[in-house]
Amino acid sequence: MDRKTLLPFLAMPILLLAVEIGAILLSLPVQAAGITAFQNPTDVTNPLIFIAILLAFTALLLVLIRYNLKKVIDAVIKISFFLTFCYIFAALVYAAMGATDLATVLVFALSVIASVVLFKYPEWYVIDTLGILIGAGVASIFGVSLDILPVVILLALLALYDAISVYKTKHMITLAEGVIDLKTPILFVIPKRKDYSFIRDGIGKLGDGGERAAFIIGMGDMIMPSILVVSANVFLKGWRLAGIINLPAIGAIIGSVAGLAVLLHFVTSGKPQAGLPPLCGGTILGFLIGWALMMWV
Length: 297
Hints:
297 residues, 11 helices, 4 strands, two-stranded antiparallel sheet, mainly alpha, 5% strand
């Protein structure tokens, strides 16, 4: 592997670790602000609700892509990101200031600023920086809302769905190509050269056989493993490193990085790959090893 390829491949685990560590840190203000995605964290039907919403949103985007409704796609994604920023900043601001009128105004202002920066100047470093915040925020919200068993079920179902959608139906590739053509910042972008510009260069079409200007990895590939990291750290008691993180969460982090390494090995083939099977599989396995070790500590 040459240097041009090696450096981006090293950047991906760093991005994953940044999302996971950020999610753990954000889980505290998220809990303090009382922000949750599900009322009952132990309900095993929660993953089915999650999958149903995901399928509905995916179907909507595919229909919009099919009929070339680019402005509608752009509007849907922008609104989704703005609302996500609102939840994340609400957790941070409300935890610090309480749910006051001033805090609400500040949450709205920060969400508007972040959205404007992301969509008006979507350079790769802006996308990746705000992507870490988005990934960590979403993972923390779902992580504190789902107990261990529902999260494991969710990751297993998502891994299966991702494999089917990439290798069998291939609709996830169609979806990725559609949003990439619009240069929509819903993924992490790792450039191959110093003078790369996402605004100017894009990344090229998936599966076109040509060399891309940058590597990409979906935000979902970073978020889903991080949900289990947060859930393990929130719902399992016991010994904690520096009083912050427990062994199951550490195991999940190590397992996710190992799963990413497996994914990157297959990515070198140049073909689109389903990221969640190795990522979710590695995260679950790492969590189980960490949980077993915690029983002995």
